[in-house]
Amino acid sequence: MTDAEQRLAEVRAGIKAILEKGQRVRKGDREMQRAELASLRVLEAEISKEVGREQAAQAGRGRNRVIYPRL
User: Fold this and answer.
1) Domain-by-domain residue ranges, the chain?
2) Rounded to a whole number, what is the largest CA-CA distance in the chain?
3) Rounded to 5°, angle at Cα 41 from 57 and 34
4) 3-class SS letters over 19-59
5) CA–CA–CA angle 61, 63, 67 (5° rounding)
6) Rounded to an integer, what distance in angstroms lies between the CA atom of residue 50 and that of residue 10?
7) Is there a contact between 5 and 53 (Cβ–Cβ < 8 Å)?
8) pTM, full prediction
9) Whole-number pLDDT of residue 30
10) Phi/psi at 24 (nearest 5 deg)?
11) Residues 15-67 pLDDT 10s
C-alpha cells in the first residue's frame, strides 16, 4: 500500500466516523468536534486523484503522449 493509498484509507475512515458517530461528541463536561465533513470530502477527492495517477504510472499508462509518425 502506497503512502497515498494509506492517507486515502485514513480520510475515508474519518468520514465514516463522522457519518456514524456525528460531528460533535460530548462526554460529561467535555466536547470534541471532529473535522468538517466538507473538507474531508475535498481531501478525499484530491488524494483519490493522486492514487489514480500512481496506479496509472505503475501500469505504464502515465502521462498522455502524442506520437507523430515520421514521414
Assistant:
1) 3-58
2) 78
3) 130
4) HHHCCEEEECCEEEECCCHHHHHHHHHHHHHHHHHHHHHHC
5) 95
6) 15
7) no
8) 0.73
9) 93
10) -120, 145
11) 999 999 888 888 899 998 888 999 999 999 999 999 998 888 888 766 666 67
How far are the Cα atoms of 3, 18, 41, 50, 52 from residue 25, in angstroms, in the given order? Answer: 29, 10, 20, 32, 34
Choice between 10 and 61, residue whose per-residue pLDDT is larger: 10
pLDDT for position 68: 76
**Which phi and psi (to 5°) does residue 57 adopt?**
-65, -40
Q: Which amino acid is at 66?
A: V
- What whole-number distance in Å separates Cα of residue 15 and Cα of residue 43? 11
Cell numbers placing 28: 460529561
